[in-house]
Amino acid sequence: MAWLPPWRHAIVQTNVVSTAVRRKYAKGDSKLSRRDQAEAVPDGPGSGLFEQLIAQSASHLSNLAYIGENLEASYGDMIDEALSAGSQINESTGVPGPIATIISDPRARVPAVLAVSAARRALIPLDPEWPEERKQAIIKNFACAGILVDESNAFSDIGATDKKIEILGAGLYSAPTPSFPAEPWHDHISRMEYVLFTSGSTGSPKGVGVGLSASRRHIDAFVEWSNLGARDRVFQFARLAFDTSQEEIWPALFAGATLVASVAKLPTFTQLQDRLGATGVTVLELPTAYWRQWSHHLRNKKLSLERLRLMLIGGEAAYERDAYAWRTGALSTVRLVNSYGSTETGIMDSAYEVPATVEDSPRPLPIGKPISPRKFRLDDPVDGVGELLVSSPTLADGYFTPTGLIQNRFLDLPDGRWFRTGDLVESGSDSTYAFRGRVDRRVKILGQRVELEAVEAALLHSGVEEARVEVVDDDRGSPRLSAIVVGEIDSAEIRSRLARTLPPAFVPARIHIVDSLPKNASGKIDVPAVRKMLQATDGAPGR
Predict the structure, then answer these.
(1) How far is it, in rounded angstroms, from Cα 422 to Cα 171?
(2) Whole-model pTM?
């Protein structure tokens, strides 16, 4: 018998399913009947997310699961195509190990995730924008057995032209990788559902490994919190290298909802609005930076998205002035939730329901209350502000590095396992938490402690549209604040407005006005790119 992943062996060798189904799996035949699909996979120790999804979907296989571009697929058809694609991935690679994906086309994201999961492999998504050397290093260091790419990446340096796989209207290409020296910890990484690299495009690769139990606990918690159901249509916005993609895809499918693919890598507001309206999207999750611009774009405009019931934002701090723009714009009545979380803790950890009325102020929105089963704790709080620790069964296994698994930010305490977030948080009297910055973004300027996020909030309130503040050294080597902003206002006026509310040390020594701030693939401000811009411009006067 050819090599099969553990879950296929379990199905072939168990008496839980019919002899005919076991024979089909043993031969790699994944074109199963609806009845086969319903009974093929037990919900047990040998199962993974996709196998559990098959069992979960048995009662609604004819329901609509996926809307692509000029394509719709039922749950039954989606499962058929995913099982076939997974079988072809296993045939292409031939050996156990994770699958690295490089996907640029948004219409290929969901197909790629389902194909890898159906193959019962750990998913390691690599962002197409990362340097080639970084992608190659991850494939080698983490012993990826194969790669799966879309057509636009098939003929790159890390391209895959061995086997073309058709799934849900997407053309994917699979190929094996060279044989890498085996390490004892490689088996652990192969047992993950996904491994995401959170350190950006620079530095030594470090992947957050999330297993089946943690992933499933978050899926169930998110479905319950958001009240997701068959009536819902969930938009898939995030690139696969970002954890939000997992939160968009799996809860929707486990809830029996319909996933809607984007048809643009980073859609314009018009493209987004047209797609949401045409497909009847009810749930939308956006990076805060993208949503902020969209909110201000919608001011004094008319737009009807009658089915949209939940707007979920997250990824960076949001401010009351942003929520004010939303609440006075075209979609003012849509439920707005500010979320907080991290890859290490299971993605979304807390939520704040933005009220119908909000002030036009620079105050940050709270991050809300923990979502069950999460527990929050503040470490060594001073004046009510401390570093946030999170405990939950959704925690990742740890960080996979080129030398193995490390858990340097995970703590084993008498009352459980906790993760040290590095975020400064304040707890209110009603158990609502508020983000107060990063531990590593507290700096001293002229002997005064400065919170960079507070300066950014003041800049936004001064009339600019976007802002990022960093510390740079002046000609004498002394640290000073330097800001880069987007807006129709000159730097002298910005300084004048800041001086009315901020101490002198908080007012940036230089303010650079640009047409736009660089964004990374998730729509967040690209911090390394901003720092390069500041290094290049701080020799010239701000304007």
Answers:
(1) 41
(2) 0.81
